[in-house]
Design goal:
Its EC number is 3.2.1.93. It comes from Gemelliphila palaticanis. GO terms for molecular function: alpha,alpha-phosphotrehalase activity. Belongs to the glycosyl hydrolase 13 family. The chain is α/β, with parallel strands linked by helices and about 550 residues long. The protein is about 30% helix and about 20% strand. The strands form six sheets. It has an eight-stranded parallel β-sheet. A five-stranded antiparallel β-sheet has the order 16-17-18-22-20. The protein starts with 8 loop residues before the first strand and ends with a strand. It binds 1-deoxynojirimycin. 1-deoxynojirimycin (NOJ) binds next to loops.
């Protein structure tokens, strides 16, 4: 298999990256303009969120035509030009394949609605229960029931996400062939990677049953079903698997290490790597996302460590990420953007980039963009955010508290326009953007960062180190002193070379005693760190949010 282990992927959210035609929405020509900026950062591949034709109810994750470009983003010619230009800079594209569901405006669903039996079997359509209730008691991940009336019939269609996103019936071989054909269509356009949306929920049983009402039990009824592995292998063998240079990543909702290994162990012919999300739930209050509690550092360390060790033991491969378009900004979440913006952003970056796996950088992360903390619910656009706000008020949470939760957890936190400079709309667009710009854009923007900042260069260095040091791209992983209250430390090892990585997750000095670790500090060099003059011996005191990587001979 192609060795992708020294690659770094940049996630680009087209709607919010750069608006070249000044209609308030980012577009492909805007991306073309900024490719030299990304080449300067040193990334290898760009994962693009969906830019296919879509009613945009869920920002493009509701696709109405998989083989076209939505006019808000440009044309197919623009797309082809973008692929060609990026190639000149050694950058490839990874596209988002949303195969669990289509928009209800997709031709298949429309034909199904008009009575075409062939297309009715493309979706998961069931009779109501004999007492008239919905086919099961399942809940949509965006709130409310997961079933909606199918046109004027007595039947219901399943939507695990928004009511406008109808789940596809993967048990139908014709559906599988259609989706294989879509991957092959984009491969022919020179696309070199695929990110598969919520891939582990595509395998639903023929007979669907009620859950106990417990959300984990409910998810288990349709998540990581053994048949999912068969579907992925089929997709692999009939499309991307025929070209060993293709990189794939599956978004796996609530998965486990056992399945993570099955999805990514090369002998299985499934995927290159997966996204798992457990480490981004450590600031949920008893599992509840819409809450505001400090993150649980013990739990975070345990999860990172378990996934590193577990996947490594089974020859699996992790996608490494703190941020994406569904998550709040990690520096606002786990760092201190007021007192230690540089230190905490670089500590988080380094913790992740030196782990075993493939790092993803989400646009704006490389300049330290933060959550926008909008004071008005109307400034948020996201469908999930508005559903959650409504549900919180229905549960008698007062408006101020509900808004506090939204400020912490809304998906719009990461979707605000990219901050390019200190001019109006942060240089993203000449007109009012589709989502407000964060009001700190005069202090945090690309221009200023490139002139006087230190975060971008730190990322640049981390990316370069992965290419220069096999201990980073290929080395083994071992977590050490996991009971330290402030510091997450680990050792990577490759052919006798050791890389010790120490990360202080708090805004105060913290000590670690390494005297029992059998490490030789007589012959070391500091590979990278976010403070100068760190004093290295077997007892090390780290400064606030300090991170340091020490190479031991
Ligand atoms: C996961 C995507 O990342 C998210 O943005 C989307 O809303 C859901 N899948 C549904 O497609």
């Amino acid at each position: 298999m192609y060795n992708f282990k020294d690659k770094v992927i940049y996630q680009l959210y087209p709607k919010s990256f750069k608006d070249a035609n000044n209609d308030g929405v980012g577009d492909i020509r805007g991306i073309i303009e900024k490719i030299p900026y990304l080449a300067n950062l040193g990334i290898d591949m760009i994962w693009l969120n969906p830019m296919y034709k879509s009613p945009q109810k869920d920002n493009g994750y509701d696709i109405s035509d998989y083989k076209s470009i939505d006019p808000i983003f440009g044309t197919m010619e623009d797309f082809e030009e973008m692929v060609e230009v990026a190639r000149k800079y050694n950058i490839d594209f990874m596209l988002d394949m949303v195969f669990n569901h289509t928009s209800i405006e997709h031709e298949w669903f429309q034909k199904a609605l008009s009575g075409d039996k062939k297309y009715q079997d493309y979706y998961i359509i069931r009779d109501a229960k004999s007492n008239g209730d919905k086919p099961t008691n399942w809940l949509s991940k965006f709130g409310g029931p997961a079933w909606e009336k199918f046109g004027n019939t007595d039947k219901y269609y399943l939507h695990l996400y928004d009511v406008t996103q109808a789940d596809l019936n993967w048990r139908n071989p014709e559906v599988r062939e259609e989706l294989i054909d879509i991957v092959n269509f984009w491969l022919k356009k020179g696309v070199k990677g695929f990110r598969f949306d919520v891939l582990n929920v595509i395998g639903k049983d023929e007979v669907l049953i009620d859950s106990t009402g417990d959300s984990a039990q409910e998810k288990s009824l349709y998540t990581d079903k053994p048949v999912v592995h068969e579907y992925i292998k089929l997709l692999n063998n009939k499309s991307f698997g025929n070209d060993k240079n293709i990189i794939t990543v599956g978004e796996m909702s609530s998965t486990n290490i056992e399945n993570g290994i099955l999805y990514t162990n090369p002998s299985r012919e499934e995927l290159s790597m997966i996204f798992s999300f457990h480490h981004l739930k450590v600031d949920y209050d008893n599992g509840e996302k819409w809450s505001k509690v400090p993150f649980d550092f013990e739990e975070l360390k345990k999860l990172l460590n378990d996934w590193q060790e577990g996947m490594s033991n089974g020859d699996g491969w992790n996608a490494l990420f703190w941020n994406n378009h569904d998550q709040p900004r990690s520096n606002s979440r786990f760092g201190d953007v007021k007192k230690y913006p540089y230190e905490s952003a670089t500590m988080l970056a380094q913790t992740l980039h030196l782990l075993r796996g493939t790092p993803y950088i989400y646009q704006g992360e490389e300049i330290g963009m933060t959550n926008p903390s909008f004071d008005n619910i109307d400034d948020y656009v996201d469908i999930e955010t508005h559903n959650a706000y409504k549900e919180l008020l229905e549960k008698s949470v007062d408006k101020d508290t509900a808004l506090e939760y939204i400020k912490e957890k809304s998906r719009d936190n990461s979707r605000t326009p990219m901050q390019w400079d200190n001019t109006a709309n942060a240089g993203f667009s000449k007109v009012k953007p589709w989502l407000k710009v964060a009001n700190n854009y005069k202090e945090i923007n690309v221009q200023r960062e490139l002139d006087t900042g230190k975060i971008f260069n730190y990322y640049k260095k981390l990316i370069k180190l992965r290419k220069d040091y096999k201990v980073i791209s290929e080395g083994t992983y071992r977590g050490i002193q996991l009971d330290n209250k402030y510091i997450y430390s680990y050792i990577r090892e490759y052919e006798g070379q050791k890389l010790l990585v120490l990360n202080n997750f708090y805004g105060e000095n913290a000590k670690i005693d390494l005297s029992k670790e059998n490490l030789d500090f007589n012959n070391y060099s500091v590979l990278i760190g976010n403070y100068e003059n760190s004093n290295i011996s077997s007892v090390i005191e780290l400064k606030p949010y300090e991170t340091i990587a020490i190479l031991l001979k």
